[in-house]
Amino acid sequence: MDKFDALEQALRSAAPHTLVDVVTDALAEWYRADDVQLRLADYGMRSLQAVETGPGTTEPVPIDGSAQGRAFGSQEPHVTKGPARVEVHLPVTVRGDRLGVLTVRMSEDIDAEALLPDLQRVCEALGHEILVAERDTDLYVLARRAARLTLAAEMQWLLLPGRACARSEFALGAHLEPAYAIFGDNYDWSVSADHLTLTVTNGMGNGIEAALLTSLAVNALRNARRAGLDLAGQATLADQAVYAHYQGRAYVSVLLLRFDLDSGEVEVVDAGSPRLWRLRDRVVEPIDFEAQLPLGMFEDTVYEPERFAVRPGDRLLFGSDGVYDSSSPAGERYGSRTLARTLLATSLLPPTQVPGAVLRELAGHRGDTPLDDDALVVCLDWYGRDERGGVDGDAATG
Length: 398
What we know:
The chain is of the alpha+beta class. Helices cover 32% and strands 27% of the residues. The protein starts with a helix and ends in a 16-residue tail after the last strand.
């Protein structure tokens, strides 16, 4: 049996909390590795936290300014050499979702560069098994916490599909602040053979009530999508579910989109406050839709979809009102000019890094004033299916 097949089999059969031990034993046997350490990105995407079975005793390392953070940010292996040994820092990523970094320490006489393809295969296998193991252990979830989550934030993070997703047709990344105390903002996506469905949600209220409201809406949208309803039908079913429970006392704003992966055509239902900006050919402009009623505001609301198209090379940025409505000390709204400048300034960053950069600029825009609302940013880069003739850049319009 191939050694990688044997490792994958060992990971699948191992107890969920022992995955790093399995990898450590394998790398010690294959390459005489002295030590193996797995660090996962915290919820705020500011530090890399060690995965430890006992009480946390290892200090986190910052993503900015550390060797591990360099591997995490670039999504490329980073090799450092010290006295008598070499360290290899490798990103652990699953389908575009950046989980963390695996650090392998070996003797200086080992040709670490030659081993990079092998070590990357190990990281790929480990990453997939971590996602499976999280169903049965809190170990990896706990490692992501630089601080205690509020109960509302715990509920919201459990709703999320991940922090990034990548396919040949697109790549997207998302982030929420305050990461450890979010209330009602949420995002969701699902990809099929031919479509990407993306929702950006802003539930009214604070604390547990906001989390419960958003949970109801997100799960109603998922239930409708999985029942095969079209986009308007998904909005209608979720609207009915929220109204039936709250009778109009609470409601949820949502931007609901369905991308055709072949043509680049996008169907949209705009039911509230989340907004969209597009970066195309170095020009940033808001994409406005006909505003329809938020989910659950009134009984039997009828939703009508709109359409636009994306071209290969387009970057879309989605933001909640906690982003674009946030004001500077002088009273200037972030969405007026600063957001567009930030989107242009970050055009060379991958979509996984853009939300964090936008939110850092938002913090600077606000000055000493802390966030008084959730701030949600989703960034989507569209590549299309050019090789299959799916998107015609001259014909597609926005």
